[in-house]
Design goal:
Layout lengths: L1 E4 L7 E2 H7 L8 E3 L7 H5 L6 H13 L5 H12 L10 E3 L4 E5 L9 H16 L6 E6 L3 H10 L5 E8 L5 H8 L6 E7 L2 H13 L1 H6 L2 E2 L6 H17 L7 E6 L4 H11 L4 E8 L4 H8 L1 E3 L19 H9 L4 H10 L1 E3 L2 H10 E5 L2 H15 L5 H12 L8 E5 L7 H8 L20 E4 L2 H11 L5
Parallel strand pairs: 5-15, 6-7, 6-9, 7-8, 8-16, 10-11, 10-15, 11-14
Antiparallel strand pairs: 1-2, 1-3, 4-5, 12-13
Helix pairs in contact: 3-4, 3-10, 4-5, 5-6, 5-10, 6-7, 10-11, 13-15, 16-17, 16-18
The protein binds pyridoxal-5'-phosphate (PLP) and the ligand N[C@@H](CCOP(=O)(O)O)C(=O)O.
The site of the ligand N[C@@H](CCOP(=O)(O)O)C(=O)O has 13 residues, from helix 6.
Protein name: Threonine synthase
EC number: 4.2.3.1
Enzyme class: lyase
Length: about 475
């Protein structure tokens, strides 16, 4: 498989190089040059397969020829062996029509582990026997950071610098990052929002000198390998609910548009998806874009679903590119200079075929947490609650199964869950003595010079 940039001016790369590179050199994002196609028979043949075998079948076309089937199987077995549930991403039925797809059984309790456990192993595999040293720079609103740090802490050949918005992640999220004291882990709390952190990360990639000198690499969903790994659970869940013989809808709590774009990829590969519900909190740029064509970023409003407090959704560019059928360089540059753009008619009409959207406020979110607890016996986290509220309001035909992606364990947001439901979720034993451990992080202003200066003092420059 070859990959090309959404902005049309970077070299095409194979899977190995796309994984190690992150952002394309023209500022765009890498996407496959063609979508692999799964026939109804191919999809039916996934019935009864384990998560690992499903992952191998779904991802193989994306990694060929850089990984063999056996190498991919070995990596998946190792990555998903760390999950606390035998099904890796189990489905839980909550009423006649609705299911939760629990994506939080990995080591750091959020859906990010599904992709990042694999990505950590891919880095190791692709770096083995080379003298390369990667400097991973990442931005997190709470969950990517801990999952990425868990995946690469202590690994040879990699340093990770993770930027989070100071005071805007939950205490569990912060401690999951800052109590990892491995020497290759560097946590930075920035004085700003997640959007500021993400913009700084992209600026570092766009600085050819800095990016080349420190061999930057990405763990955010700008890295294609992240999304590829997330496509798997759409297949796994849909097959269990009757695909390819019946279509399934998914409701996806959305911020950076990575998780729901993985659902779009599954649909492009042939999985019968009736609808993808893009569920946002009050930071609703994506809801405005999909319902009215207006992609304009305001300022971020902090909410009790902080991982989705995002106004500039990186992966939306991948969708716009696919719907436009070619480079979106001008459209994206326009957005970068004005923080606003209109979707073209082609993009709006294309998106409407598969997507619907909703923005859920604090009342809607709290009500969904209460409903799930009282009516379905499920304690869910605020992000999942936003997905569930949007699923329940989407007006989907009664014979379509609707799966809400349960993106985080409720214990990560135990104060918000307790406020809404009166139930205080227990932190699972597998994350251990989190509140006794020592924290280590530095606080910096959200400026390019401050962050790059900090990294330059600590990272390995190319010889
Ligand atoms: C718990 C949780 N839910 C939902 C999201 C949104 O996912 P995405 O950014 O892929 O849209 C995030 C952050 O990415 C998250 O951490
Ligand atoms: N919600 C995310 C934000 C970063 O998104 P990513 O999927 O691009 O890594 C987080 O928890 O950090």
């Amino acid at each position: 498989m070859q990959y090309h940039s959404t902005r049309g001016a970077a070299p095409s790369l194979g899977f190995r190089d796309v994984t190690l590179t992150g952002l394309a050199s023209d500022g765009g994002l890498y996407v496959p040059t063609a979508w692999p196609s799964f026939s109804a028979a191919d999809i039916a043949s996934l019935r009864g397969l384990s998560y690992v075998e499903t992952a191998v079948r779904v991802m193989l076309p994306f990694v060929t020829p850089d990984l063999s089937e056996d190498e991919l199987r070995q990596l998946c077995t190792q990555a998903y062996g760390r999950f606390a549930h035998a099904a890796v991403t189990p489905l839980v039925q909550i009423d006649q029509q609705h299911w939760l797809l629990e994506l939080f059984h990995g080591p750091t309790l959020a859906f990010k582990d599904v992709a990042l456990q694999l990505l950590g192993l891919l880095f190791e595999k692709f770096l083995a026997g080379t003298n390369q040293h990667l400097t991973i720079v990442g931005a997190t609103s709470g969950d990517t950071g801990s999952a990425a740090i868990d995946a690469v802490a202590g690994r040879i050949g990699v340093d990770i610098f993770m930027l989070h918005p100071r005071g805007r992640v939950s205490d569990v999220q912060r401690r999951q990052m800052t109590t990892v004291l491995a020497p290759n882990v560097h946590n930075i709390a920035i004085e700003g929002s997640f959007d500021d952190a993400q913009a700084l990360v992209k600026a570092m990639f766009n600085d050819a000198d800095f990016s080349g000198r420190f061999q930057l690499s990405a763990v955010n969903s700008i890295n294609w390998a992240r999304l590829m790994a997330q496509v798997v659970y759409y297949f796994y869940a849909a097959v269990r609910l009757g695909a390819p013989d019946r279509a399934v809808a998914f409701s996806v709590p959305t911020g950076n548009f990575g998780d729901v774009f993985a659902g779009y990829v599954a649909a492009r590969m042939g999985l019968p998806i009736a609808k993808l519900v893009v569920a946002t909190n009050v930071n609703d740029i994506l809801h405005r874009a999909l319902s009215a064509g207006d992609y304009s970023a305001g300022t971020v409003t902090p909410t009790a679903a902080p991982s989705m407090d995002i106004q500039v959704s990186s992966n939306f560019e991948r969708l716009l590119f696919d719907l436009a059928g070619g480079s979106v360089a001008d459209q994206m540059r326009g957005f970068e200079s004005t923080r606003a753009m209109q979707l073209t008619n082609m993009q709006r009409e294309g998106a409407a075929k598969l997507f619907t959207s909703d923005a859920i406020d604090a009342d809607g979110m709290n009500e969904a947490m209460r409903w799930a607890c009282a009516e379905a016996g499920q304690v869910i986290d605020p992000h999942t609650a936003i997905g569930l509220a949007a699923a329940q309001r989407a007006g989907l035909a009664a014979d379509v199964p609707v799966v809400t992606l349960a993106t985080a364990h409720p214990a990560k947001f135990r104060d918000a869950v307790e406020r809404a439901t009166g139930v205080r979720p227990q932190v699972p034993g597998r994350i251990g003595d989190l509140f006794e451990r020592q924290e280590r992080y530095d606080t910096l202003p959200a400026t390019f010079d401050a962050i790059t200066g900090y990294i330059a003092e600590r990272a390995h420059a190319r010889p």
